[in-house]
Amino acid sequence: MSNSKIIGIGSYVPLNVLTNSDLEKLVDTSDEWIVSRTGIKQRHISVTENTSDLSTKAAIEALNNSNLKAEDLDYIIVATCTPDKFIPSTACIVQKNIGAKNAAAFDVSAACTGFIYALHLASSLIKADTAKNILVIGAEVFSKILNWEDRSTCVLFGDGAGAAILSKDEEYGIISSKIHSDGDKWDALVVDALNIRNPFVDKEKSDNFVSMNGGEIFKFAVKAFEGAVKELTSEANISIDDIDFVIPHQANYRIIETIGRRLNIPMSKFITNLEDVGNTSAASVPLALYDGVKSGKIKKGDKILLIGFGGGLTWGGTLIKWCL
């Protein structure tokens, strides 16, 4: 069985920045209210770029950093819950944009855990010797599914894309990966799609905006986060102290602080960027990973835990030995 490792990363966020002060002019909120409850100070909001545009720019940077050509890719997997279209997949649009003519392309929908799901799938394909190089992208234009009059949700989310290229290698980069879901709680975080509409049913209105039970999500996130950390470290036969950095889904700083206290993980080990980009859903983990690498915090040989949780409900994690 082959091993897999990350050989290139990329990221992109829209240029348009929406600060908490800007939001005060749009909805009944305040900078103090947002920061004290979430830790978010600003977010990037797309004006003209769709999810495939953000994905393409992150993908090109990842390719440039990997020294691969687009033609070398066997698969393109895009994790998103805000695709450009129902058909085709966002991944197929990215395939055309970057010229990856030899790749099979498809999307994965697992909300904020999407990148972890896609990474798990990519690593499994490589370990099964069915692929050599796979482009994995987490990307969202979440601003297009927000109710900008709902202060409980519109203050939380931002737009962005992060990309990673996994490659077959003798070096052990992806040490362990786990994904889970609990469909019994699917209604805790919802965005409606199209209603059934045909000549035989009455027409119904669907607003297609994010609806979230914040309290339920918070409780779930803490439990799922803690379970994923323990599961991954146990399988690898290492302790929490052996982990150099934890990169969590950037949902809420309070969740991260709670986990730090419960698992006795110092906050210095968490890599966060939600104060600058907000909750970018499937793009959250790869954007934070990119920032950790480019800032010089993450170095070759470091053991890193990537942890995601989100709608579905879904959760999971990946234990990585950083090889770049």
What number is the mean pLDDT? 96
Choose one word for the global shape. Answer: globular
Radius of gyration: 19 Å
**Fraction of residues in H or I helices:** 25-40%
Tell me the strand percentage band: 15-25%
Structural class: alpha/beta
Multimeric state: single chain
The total beta strand count reads: 13
- H/E series: EEHHEHEHEHEHEEEEHEHHHEE
Poorly predicted regions are: none
Largest sheet: 5 strands, mixed
Strand order of the largest sheet: 1-7-6-4-5
Distance between the termini: 22 Å
Q: Figure out the total of helices.
A: 10
Describe the secondary-structure layout:
Layout: E1 3-12, E2 17-19, H1 20-24, H2 31-38, E3 42-44, H3 51-66, E4 75-79, H4 90-98, E5 104-108, H5 114-127, E6 133-141, H6 151-154, E7 159-169, E8 174-181, E9 189-191, E10 210-212, H7 214-235, E11 245-248, H8 253-263, H9 274-277, H10 284-294, E12 303-310, E13 314-321
What does this structure look like?
It is globular and about 55 Å long. The chain has helices spanning 20-24, 31-38, 51-66, 90-98, 114-127, 151-154, 214-235, 253-263, 274-277, 284-294, and strands at residues 3-12, 17-19, 42-44, 75-79, 104-108, 133-141, 159-169, 174-181, 189-191, 210-212, 245-248, 303-310, 314-321. Strand 12 (303-310) and strand 13 (314-321) form a beta hairpin. It is of the alpha/beta class.
Briefly summarize what is shown:
This protein is α/β, with parallel strands linked by helices and 324 residues long. The protein has helices at residues 20-24, 31-38, 51-66, 90-98, 114-127, 151-154, 214-235, 253-263, 274-277, 284-294, and strands at 3-12, 17-19, 42-44, 75-79, 104-108, 133-141, 159-169, 174-181, 189-191, 210-212, 245-248, 303-310, 314-321. The longest helix has 22 residues, at 214-235.
